[in-house]
From TrEMBL:
<dbReference type="InterPro" id="IPR000031">
    <property type="entry name" value="PurE_dom"/>
</dbReference>
<dbReference type="GO" id="GO:0004638">
    <property type="term" value="F:phosphoribosylaminoimidazole carboxylase activity"/>
</dbReference>
<dbReference type="Pfam" id="PF00731">
    <property type="entry name" value="AIRC"/>
</dbReference>
<dbReference type="GO" id="GO:0016787">
    <property type="term" value="F:hydrolase activity"/>
</dbReference>
<dbReference type="GO" id="GO:0006189">
    <property type="term" value="P:'de novo' IMP biosynthetic process"/>
</dbReference>
<protein>
    <recommendedName>
        <fullName>phosphoribosylaminoimidazole carboxylase</fullName>
        <ecNumber>4.1.1.21</ecNumber>
    </recommendedName>
</protein>
<comment type="pathway">
    <text>Purine metabolism; IMP biosynthesis via de novo pathway; 5-amino-1-(5-phospho-D-ribosyl)imidazole-4-carboxylate from 5-amino-1-(5-phospho-D-ribosyl)imidazole (carboxylase route): step 1/1.</text>
</comment>
<feature type="domain" description="PurE">
    <location>
        <begin position="228"/>
        <end position="362"/>
    </location>
</feature>
<dbReference type="InterPro" id="IPR039476">
    <property type="entry name" value="P2CMN_synthase_LarB"/>
</dbReference>
Length: 363
């Protein structure tokens, strides 16, 4: 491992090549962990007795670990956010140290070696933030921003990577989490690790890294390089929450997202209008979210050349069986090129999209 880092610091290999070689070492690192009984080398951080946070998932898979908020207490969520925030700061310190080593201005920080040892770090495969429209107001999904920092002096900012996300967080639970964050916002508190943004439509809680102020009343918005363009469609307005879960998470990973909502096949002329839009036609993947009969993905897959990710929702009446009917429709799609995720699973749809786009770019 030291040899890999040394070659990287001398410019003999690229950061991507170094990351690839370090990932190949992970099995050996994990075997060493069993002997040494050190959690750092196992690739996860234990949070009290109730959670083991996967700190190397972004490096392994290109997707961050997303906390599932349902079934967790506000106190558990805060403890997990604290752990992930500390790890993120360690990674950032390691990356800064590595940069100094490359420039020959100083030695690499020990945190760099620790980060590499556990296979963590955001790197090229880490999550990205779409820092565009509506950042302070909560974006398309609606929402609010709460600044949390040491002594309450945190700074809101959009960063290109390093966000931490919890899904399925109710407004009531979000309010409780923010209250706990503010209580612990002094020295050593969660607030040191970023500011909290909440999007009530998809029910996403996002912990973003601190950034710098940009002029009077403004904040920096570093937009990451795009990994591709997709369209998120939903059949009805009742499906928007699931569609936004997919769309917002895709944006956090650097995907450009076009939206076309309430375009179900019951009024198919609405769908044709959407399909005529230039950005929809250029989309590399289309996510189709639908409940009731779930026919939208089949129609779209029969009209567009790109892959379609189908998301059934639990919207509908009676024998729809909480989404089972649209799920079966989508699994039986006649048009080829449809991949179906679980009922109401916007997170899974976003993950599928990101992996398709990154795979097309060669990782």
């Amino acid at each position: 491992m030291s040899g890999i880092l040394s070659r990287l610091s001398h410019g003999e290999i690229t950061p991507f090549e170094a990351k690839t070689e370090l990932l190949r070492l992970q099995p050996q690192i994990w075997k060493g962990a069993a002997r040494e009984n050190t959690e750092k080398a196992k690739g996860y951080d234990s949070v009290e007795s109730f959670a083991k946070v996967d700190i190397s998932r972004a490096a392994r898979t290109g997707l961050p670990e997303i906390i599932f908020g349902e079934g967790k207490t506000p106190e558990q969520l805060v403890a997990i956010l604290t752990s992930m925030g500390r790890r993120r700061r360690l990674e950032e310190e390691g990356e800064r140290g590595l940069a100094r080593g490359e420039d020959g201005r100083g030695e690499m920080l020990s945190a760099t070696k620790e980060t590499a040892a556990v296979g963590a770090g955001t790197g090229q495969a880490g999550p990205c933030v779409e820092g565009g429209e509506g950042a302070r107001e909560g974006g398309r999904g609606g929402g609010s921003v709460t600044t949390v920092g040491s002594g309450g002096q945190g700074v809101r900012a959009c960063a290109a990577q390093g966000v931490i996300v919890a899904s399925r967080v109710s407004p009531k639970k979000y309010a409780a989490v923010v209250a706990l964050l503010k209580e612990e916002g002094g020295e050593g508190g969660v607030g040191e690790y970023g500011w909290v943004e909440y999007k009530p439509v998809p029910r996403l809680l996002i912990l973003r890294p601190h950034g710098r102020k940009e002029g009077k009343g403004g904040f920096e918005r570093r937009k990451p390089p795009s990994i591709g363009l997709i369209t998120v469609m939903c059949a009805g307005t009742a499906d928007v929450s699931v569609a936004e879960e997919a769309g917002v998470l895709a944006e956090l990973c650097g995907v450009e997202v076009e939206r076309a909502y309430d375009v179900g096949v019951a009024g198919i002329h609405r769908l044709f209008d959407a399909l005529g839009q230039e950005r929809v036609r250029r989309s590399q993947v289309v996510v189709c979210v639908a409940g009731m009969d779930g026919a939208l993905p089949t129609v779209v897959a029969g009209l567009l050349p790109c892959p379609v990710v189908a998301v059934p929702t639990s919207v509908g009446y009676g024998v729809g069986k909480d989404g089972l009917a649209p799920l079966l429709t989508m699994l039986n799609a006649c048009a080829p090129g449809v991949a179906c995720v679980n009922i109401d699973n916007g997170v899974g749809a976003a993950g599928m999209v990101v992996k398709i786009l990154r795979g097309a770019k060669g990782g």
